[in-house]
């Protein structure tokens, strides 16, 4: 069965919107783990719009499963990662003005910088994942520059508004997962996945882990984190 890594960024979004100390993303992470999450994900953005450094450091102490830190490959973030030592870093592209991550890392443009970041993190014993579009050339490059894992960006599929678009985006994901596995990369998937889109992955056994945040946090507001995580785990179990 594929694993579920739960992103708690948007618990911090709510906290920060009010400028107070709650809701507490650390409490959300503990609740998610208790409900069966296989990992906790946070994206430390340059502008600290949700998760901040204090959250990451506390999570490192408290998370029992595995801590996955999403970040841009900047010298500031590399310094934090080397100090905090998450179990895994997922390197993502970041634009300050974007509402959420818009695309995968462009390794063709940033090959040297990302290759160096991968080597630095791996030398410190941190596994490295590349958040990447379902593009075969990019995935081959991720393998060439020694990434351990890829996370296929599923946003275009999840956001597709008609069946033809959905089918064509999903077949890109299938091809990407198959080539990643052939290259012996661990293949994960994430961005925009919800309770209604997860079923599409049935039979795609190449995916080792789903990285899901917004839909789980949104459901947790209505049902509690425990139920929201259990519901998603059940859907993943049925794939
Ligand atoms: C990299 C990725 O997949 C994203 O889902 C990212 O973590 C989202 O960033 P925000 O939480 O800031 O929307
Ligand atoms: N890596 C994907 C992630 O962490 C969560 O993305 P989303 O479910 O909030 O879109």
UniProtKB/TrEMBL annotation:
The gene is pdxJ. Catalyzes the complicated ring closure reaction between the two acyclic compounds 1-deoxy-D-xylulose-5-phosphate (DXP) and 3-amino-2-oxopropyl phosphate (1-amino-acetone-3-phosphate or AAP) to form pyridoxine 5'-phosphate (PNP) and inorganic phosphate. One of its GO terms (cellular component) is cytosol. Its EC number is 2.6.99.2. Belongs to the PNP synthase family. It comes from Desulfobacula toluolica (strain DSM 7467 / Tol2). It is an enzyme of class 2 (transferase). Homooctamer; tetramer of dimers. 3-amino-2-oxopropyl phosphate binds at residues 7, 18, 192, 213-214. Keywords: Cytoplasm, Pyridoxine biosynthesis, Transferase. GO terms for molecular function: pyridoxine 5'-phosphate synthase activity. It is found in: Cytoplasm. The record marks 151 as: Transition state stabilizer. InterPro entries: Aldolase_TIM, PyrdxlP_synth_PdxJ, Pyridoxine-5'_phos_synth. This is Pyridoxine 5'-phosphate synthase. SUPFAM superfamilies: Pyridoxine 5'-phosphate synthase (SSF63892). 1-deoxy-D-xylulose 5-phosphate binds at residues 9-10, 45, 50, 100. The keyword Transmembrane helix does not apply. The active site is at 43 (proton acceptor), 70 (proton acceptor), 191 (proton donor). Pathway: Cofactor biosynthesis; pyridoxine 5'-phosphate biosynthesis; pyridoxine 5'-phosphate from D-erythrose 4-phosphate: step 5/5. CDD domains: PNPsynthase. It catalyses: 3-amino-2-oxopropyl phosphate + 1-deoxy-D-xylulose 5-phosphate = pyridoxine 5'-phosphate + phosphate + 2 H2O + H(+). GO terms for biological process: pyridoxine biosynthetic process.
